[in-house]
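Dig into what follows:
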Amino acid sequence: MKLVKIEEVVCGDIIAKTINSNGGIALIRAGTPLTNKMIELIISRGFSYLYIEDESKIEVIEDVVTQELRLEAIGEIQKLTAAIIAAKIAISRDLYSHLMDTVNQLIKDLSANTITIVNLIDLKNHDDYSFVHSVNVTILALMVGISLGYSVKNLRELGMGAILHDVGKKEIPIDILGKPSQLTKKEYDVIKLHPQIGYEKVKDVLELGAVGRSVILQHHEKLDGTGYPAGKKKDSIHEFAQIAAIADVYDALTSDRPYRRRYTPSHALEYLYGACGSHFELRLVKIFSDHIAPYPVGCRIKLSNGEDAIVSDISANRYRPIVRVGSNQIDLCKQLNTTIIDILM
């Protein structure tokens, strides 16, 4: 199995991991040889990368949460957001209860799961960015909360706040959200309204507590006071919101957007560390990074000896993984004079 850019996929390549569409429908199942029409369909749905089978025989890695649960969460937040924006109070409260059940299941599964490293490529195997992003942020934030020893009650507040953190964006004009070039100051000022809009929409409709609502309101605040909407500093920003902010920025950076290509996981982690002290708390970024694979299994990398390799195992060391070059496996923890100089994503 290897991870390839969609533009490198050719007719006859065999899908190694099922591609799901919005709503959980399998677009193309694992083991299917690709046709040109299938490739066109995948491109039209916005997918940038695929896992395909190759001679490396690297096994498909297990998701940190099941596909079924992730798709259920995506569907639930999509329906609830529509009801909130439409001010359908009774329906919103009923859907909120369903979403709470789903978040509780996420907490249960993540708490029990022995997999602690998130392979973000798996979290993005879906064609609806906005709601996938909300679920990704929730999973990432919950993993940090679990590492910090939060109670189930606190994890529930963190999870519900995280999954609803961008509900206010549904009131922002799509031509601004999807603009492929730099925003004007006026347009950016409109974007900056979404935390307050989301907070106001939720507080009068749902039973989310004050702590959960703070995630919605404060997830764009920064330690140095340069964030929005209130320019809060350091201790005045709730820890839950700080965790969600880290997850939000990381997932956004590692996603293709209309105005830029995605960052590699390692590049995005470097960005987070570079913003410690000004935007994020170092303690929280360190805990967050413990759950991220800088070099995900299946991705291609360039080694310092000039060879291209495929990451095959990160269980022993995320930064010095076992890699495959042709038919040979190399443990970079043992071959210390060979380093990773680039990730070919």
